[in-house]
Design a protein that fits this description.
809 residues, Arc Repressor Mutant, subunit A, 4 domains, flat
Length: 809
């Protein structure tokens, strides 16, 4: 068996994935060593490795915010930066859930009063250099990710500084350092202090002395070599002309100044950012050199050149006059139209509450309507079911999945949170009841244990004693649950064992749940959700610590949440391609709405309709069997045998007529597969909606025809929204083209752009694949012109896109 590779060997291979995995293992073993005083600061980041230089043994560490997973950007210490920095728990959670993360880091800001020393290359042959050991002996010190340097921390203040020659760097008010918790490397170098100590004035002076650069600039370039390089690269010459050139770094790299230095994560250091920003002429056939500025604007080359007045769009091709550009052809409509929501679609008992929310928030009423119906389906759960056919035993559990598609800022989350209030009130009351029962159970359990111990004691003294039998300890009370948020399928399964009527899984952003269920290794969650959709199937899972073969007789989980349009398009496109998104999950969201943003807005500032809210609250209480007793306490009717309903005669005829039309549509082979799969789920949707509406209005017995007709109108409304959603997968280039055109009109994308200039921004719908679709369609319709440029007739062409001047006219 081959011995595992050492860290140095992994670095030598340049394998980013292997090094990331190795560092993750190290961090998980050592994280407990990180001082609590550091963990208590809200200054945590996570970081990834983007490239390794095997020659130097160094690797890039790109910091990003642990909650949003966006690269750290903007001015450090700004309100935006402070809001995005995470707690230790945020950083740890990001590390646990994202395998591409190599470790965590800490942002140095004045308010923390933390000083950090970073010394590279001070560990050789397992020994820490003596001068570094003397400086760091009195405080917490750890070994850097490379295994060749250290980080040390103190409480206090100091001037930031960097000494390139001695490889000392001191942080206090700017920058970030990786934090490993590793105090042992290769079983030789050891750092013993476990906590951060105060920085005294003497040591502070020493640290600042060692971290002060002896020469700000490095070796000056030889004039003849620099002149020759500039002759071959007009961009380098432009940097020289702008007075931003610093020095030759060797290896074809040139250290330069950046006009956006105030945005850098190391802005404010006395010694500047030196080799943080550099220019490198291309040598592989490209004509253009590139700016490397990893802390801020990344590969957005246009921003730098525009700031120094250099026109990159004039390189390699002539300007075109307006007359030479073609006329613009109309861009196809972005989305199919959908009807406006009509409140008459709702039963009378629910209308005032939904109307109140929609009016106060100035949003489409279908958003709270979808949330309310899904929440009702969850509280009904398996308590009441329906047999849609007159004689057949086909039974439908009214378990529904609802999703609202809307861009950020469209109030979908506040609206859904509002309609969840009745459910949360039930959960709160149920938990209070559980606490009382659990406290009584603890007292009873302790009493029984005392009695049983007395029996044991008597038997020990006299095995033939006449004693009472041992008392059995009653089962521990199980909390009644109606709603869950973050969960694994094993944890959700344990909840369902104690709550057989089902629960609602609520997620503010459903895309995360969808993608998580598709990840390799999460097949259990995916299968569990598929089983939970119809509310009537069994599921068995094995959970360590709770015993094998944990069986749920009837898995019933409703799902509710929101999703952004771009995320939904991405997922549906994957489903149409037959990749991981083609799992059938998204098609099971029968209550899917994608309303148009309202063009009208008016100020509404009034008290909520408390009467409507209380009425809906009483409906929820009635449906879960909650009764107010004479002593003002509550009793819950236990539903062990479901109440099964059927349609009345007229309702049965109406349902059969509608079902026949649906079946003919599904068998006509005229629908895209993903749409056909979705509409097939409407077979159970109409009975479910009719039952929910009837129960909301407190109808007893058979379901009247008016509720079936109301449900049929609902599915016609929902079908239009489904066609809008699933069309984004069959005509997938149009939304991307609209998204890119909007950025062009806003000035965020400029003439002469490259695809990377767009997709590296991380904009919705404009990842690498989305940009390719967008530019192909926009070129076809005359909005863009594709230009291929080659350097000296060799090498791979550089692709840029010119923008038709008519776009902004």
């Amino acid at each position: 068996m081959n011995a595992p590779m050492t860290k140095a060997e992994v670095i030598a291979t340049g394998n980013v994935v292997a090094l990331t995995s190795l560092l993750r293992v190290e961090f998980e073993m050592n994280k407990s060593s990180i001082p609590v005083s550091l963990k208590n600061c809200k200054g945590w980041l996570a970081w990834r490795i983007t490239e390794i230089n095997p020659a130097t043994g160094k690797f890039s560490k790109i910091p990003f915010y642990p909650r949003s997973r966006q690269k750290r950007h903007g001015q450090q210490g700004s309100p935006t930066d402070m809001a995005n920095l995470g707690t230790w728990d945020d950083a740890w959670m990001a590390f646990k859930t994202d395998k591409s993360i190599a470790g965590v880091g800490f942002a140095l800001l004045p308010l923390f009063d933390i000083v950090a020393l970073d010394v590279d290359g001070c560990i050789e042959n397992g020994e820490l250099r003596s001068d570094v050991k003397d400086l760091t002996a009195g405080t917490y010190c750890e070994i850097s990710p490379s295994g060749k340097g250290i980080r040390a921390f103190w409480q206090g203040t100091a001037n930031d500084g960097k000494n390139h020659e001695k490889k000392f760097e001191l942080f206090h008010s700017i920058g970030f350092v990786t934090v490993t918790g590793n105090q042992v490397e290769n079983f030789y170098s050891q750092c013993s202090m476990e906590d951060i100590q105060l920085l005294d004035s003497k040591l502070k002076a020493e640290l600042e002395h060692f971290s002060r650069s002896s020469s700000k600039r490095g070796k000056p370039s030889k004039p003849e070599l620099l002149k020759k390089a500039a002759e071959n690269d007009p961009r380098l010459q432009a940097i020289i002309d702008a007075g931003l050139y610093e020095r030759d770094m060797g290896g074809g790299k040139h250290s330069i100044c950046c006009p956006f230095e105030h945005l850098h994560s190391d802005f404010g250091r006395n010694e500047g950012d030196g080799d943080t920003v550099y220019f490198q002429p291309h040598t592989n056939g490209y004509a253009e050199g590139s700016i490397y500025c990893l802390h801020t604007h990344g590969n957005d080359q246009s921003k730098y050149w525009a700031q120094i007045g250099y026109d990159i769009n004039a390189e390699g091709f002539e300007c075109l006059s307006s007359e030479e550009w073609p006329l613009l052809q109309p861009l196809p409509e972005n989305l199919p139209p959908v009807p406006k929501f009509d409140l008459s679609l709702l039963p009378v008992s629910l209308r005032p509450y939904v109307e109140d929310i929609a009016e106060r928030m100035q949003i489409s009423a279908d958003i709270p309507a979808i949330g309310l119906i899904t929440a009702l389906s969850a509280v009904i759960g398996r308590r009441v079911q329906i047999k849609p056919k007159a004689y057949d035993d086909w039974t439908v559990v009214p378990n529904l999945w609802g999703v609202v598609v809307a861009p950020p800022g469209y109030m979908k989350s506040p609206a859904l949170s509002e309609v969840m209030r009745p459910l949360h009130r039930l959960e709160s009351e149920a938990y209070k009841d559980y606490e009382l029962k659990h406290a009584a159970w603890v007292v009873e359990k302790q009493s029984i244990e005392i009695k049983n111990n007395a029996i044991k004691y008597r038997l020990k003294k006299d095995p033939n004693a006449d004693i009472e039998p041992y008392l059995l300890i009653p089962d521990e009370p199980i909390p009644t649950r109606y709603c869950v948020n973050n969960f694994s399928h094993e944890a959700l399964g344990e909840i369902l064992i104690g709550n057989p009527n089902g629960v609602l899984a609520y997620s503010d952003e459903l895309y995360g749940l969808l993608k998580m269920s598709e990840k390799p290794g999460n097949e259990g969650l995916h299968d569990f959700l598929l089983s939970a959709w119809n509310g009537d199937g069994p599921f068995t899972f094995d959970r360590i610590g709770r015993g094998l073969n944990r069986r749920i007789e009837h898995v019933c989980v409703s799902i509710l949440g929101g999703i952004q349009p771009g995320r939904l398009m991405e997922y549906i496109t994957a489903a149409n391609r037959g990749s991981r998104g083609d799992s059938g999950l998204i098609q099971r969201f029968q209550l899917l709405v994608w309303p148009d943003p309202s063009e009208e807005w008016r100020l509404v500032d009034r008290k909520p309709n408390d009467e409507a809210y209380e009425k809906v609250g009483r409906i929820f209480e009635r449906l879960v069997g909650r009764e107010l007793l004479d002593d003002l306490s509550y009793n819950y009717k236990i539903c062990r045998i479901p109440d099964v309903r059927r349609f009345g005669p007229e309702a049965q005829d109406a349902f059969y007529a509608w079902l026949e039309q649906l079946e003919r549509l599904l068998r006509g082979n005229n629908l895209p597969p993903v749409m056909a799969s979705h509409l097939s789920k409407y077979r159970s949707l109409v009975p479910s909606l009719a039952l929910i509406f009837a129960l909301a209005d407190d109808v007893r017995g058979a379901i009247p025809v008016c509720y079936v007709e109301q449900a049929i109108r609902w599915v016609a409304y929902l079908r239009a929204h489904a066609e809008r959603a699933f069309s984004t997968g069959t005509h997938s280039d149009t939304p991307h083209a609209h998204a890119l055109l909007a950025k062009i009109k806003d000035g965020a994308v400029i003439d002469g752009f490259k695809p990377a200039d767009v997709y590296l921004k991380g904009w919705s719908l404009l990842n690498s694949e989305g940009v390719t679709k967008a530019v192909d369609l926009l070129c076809e319709l005359g909005y863009l012109l594709r230009v291929e440029k080659r350097h000296k007739e060799c090498g791979r062409p550089s692709i840029t896109y010119r923008i038709n001047p008519r776009v902004k006219n």
